[in-house]
Predict the 3D structure of the following.
Amino acid sequence: MMIRPSKTWREGVAEEARELAAGTLEPEQACMASLFPEALLVATDAVLQDFETDVRGLAEPSDEQVLEVVKRVVIALNAVNEPYDHAAYETGEREQLCDYIDQVLEASSIDVPALTARRGIDRHAITDEWRDW
């Protein structure tokens, strides 16, 4: 089952808040709320929702159509990342977002390994051309 990275991040923020409230975590050790402010989570969710809708709308897509949808989600995530000094999505978050993009495509019966092989790129490089994060 595909789980949006933003859902996982939101759950981490909530868990940290529970630990703070219970006194099992010291305030100086808390970082989740500052790493994942609500505005970032909401914006990321919206972008991923649009991506899911776009992918579901593809019927027997060409490579170009799939790559155009990938390009749109990546550019939209670039825009979400920008107000955070391009540091909202660090290595772990980048990997989660890329994995999620791959999973959404695969769940829609898009053969990502075949598509990327036809393009002469590594499967995990499908976002690289447009990605700033």
Notes: The radius of gyration is 17 Å. DSSP finds six helices and no strands in the chain.
